[in-house]
Amino acid sequence: MTTIDDLLLTARESLVRLPADKVREELAAGGILVDIRPAAQRAAEGEAPAALVIERNVLEWRCDPASDAKIPEAIDHDVRWIVLCQQGYTSSLAAAALQQLGLHRATDVIGGYEALVEAGAV
Q: pLDDT means per 10 residues in the chain (122 residues)?
């Protein structure tokens, strides 16, 4: 039987995860930070000013360049999507899902929003 820990481990095998202190550097190089946290969590915990907000339930549709529901930033399969959640768990699963769509440069932030705050990156 597969557990959530198994799914997380499998998801992270395909990712080169990003430390919080490297996020600014990645953004300067053209990466796009995507905050997938729900509105209530962002309101309670804080916003990541440099991030696009795309809640988890529509992430694949917004980032897939072949989708009718894509956002303008989804120009091709070479976009560097950097997915952010609160602690870096859901974002790993989400980034792996983007990679399954052929968005192979997708990754997430180790430790999530909490790590960005700790690193002084927000």
A: 96 97 97 98 95 97 98 98 98 98 98 96 82
Neighbours of 14 (CB within 10 A): 14
Domain 4-118 maps to which CATH number in 3.40.250.10, 3.30.200.20, 3.40.50.720, 3.40.50.1820? Answer: 3.40.250.10
Query: Cα(116)–Cα(109) distance, rounded to whole angstroms?
Result: 8
pTM: 0.96
Tell which residue, 8, 2, 1, 4, has the closest CA to residue 96.
8
